[in-house]
Amino acid sequence: MNLLPLTIAGCVLLIALVAMIIYRRAAASGEDDMLHVEDPTGAVTARQTRLAQKLEKLDLWVKILTVIVILWGLGLGAAYLYNAWIETSRIG
Questions:
Q1: I want to staple 24 with a disulfide (CB 3.0 to 4.6 A). Which of 42, 53, 58, 63 is the partner?
Q2: How far apart are the C-alpha atoms of 10 and 19, rounded to whole Å?
């Protein structure tokens, strides 16, 4: 059983996860943690709200992709072990 395509797909998923984490970190670097209550135009507060919503969506996708990568890795590891077990039973 050739598991190379599945391994490559898992690597692509892992690279996508790392890219999303880096993008989230870059997006969060512009975050302002100060509470701007006396902002007369509300522009700063609106920007903070938009950024917070964007980060929440990114966090959701990072969590989903993390679970997918972990399950993919566990499944791939199980497939490799099963493949190795089958090969050793053919020899002996």
A1: 58
A2: 14
Q: Which residue has the tokens 């507060």?
A: 45
pLDDT value at 52 more than 80: yes
Nearest-angstrom CA–CA distance, 41 and 26: 27
Q: How confident is the model at residue 35 (pLDDT cuts 50, 70, 90)?
A: low
Q: How far apart are CA 63 and CA 17, in angstroms?
A: 9
**Is the predicted pLDDT of residue 40 greater than 90, yes or no?**
no
Q: How confident is the model at residue 79 (pLDDT cuts 50, 70, 90)?
A: very high
- At 10, list the tokens: 């898992």
Structure-token match 């989230």, residue found: 24
Name, in order, each residue with C-beta under 8 angstroms of 23's C-beta and a sequence gap of 6 or more: 58
Can you tell me whether residue 32 is helix, strand or coil? coil
DSSP for residue 34:
S
